[in-house]
Amino acid sequence: MILYGLALAGGAFVLEWLDYKHAVRAWSTELYIAIVAILFIALGMWLGNRLTTRSRGPAFERNIAAIRSLGISDRECEVLDLLASGAANKVIARRLGISPNTVKTHVARLFEKLEAANRTEAIHKARALDILP
Known about the structure:
- This protein has 133 residues and is mostly helical.
- The protein contains 7 helices and no strands.
- It has helices at 2-23, 29-51, 64-70, 74-84, 89-96, 100-114, 119-128.
- Helix 4 packs across helix 6 (100-114), helix 5 (89-96) packs across helix 6 (100-114) and helix 6 crosses helix 7.
- It is elongated.
- The model has no long low-confidence stretch (mean pLDDT 88).
């Protein structure tokens, strides 16, 4: 947090310095526009790099130890995979050849085992444990 505060203070200082230089007409207006544009491009690239997710690559391996320690069954792993793909309960039931009520039971058990309150939280925790790619 201190690092971000220092970065913001430094950015504000640079902008004020540029404003002062522009007020005393030390350089041409085009140069000020170019400097501000470069600053915003650098900020955009940095933010884009920080906010975009990194792909794990093609060599993903499930964390079998985490699956065993949580007691997640193979069928629950299949349901979790389909949940992560955004499939609804009825779609999951059709793909796995089970009833929608069975899917609801598997989802409820996954919530318990992953200590999650909803699908998004369950998927997030499963990815953090390397259960999902």
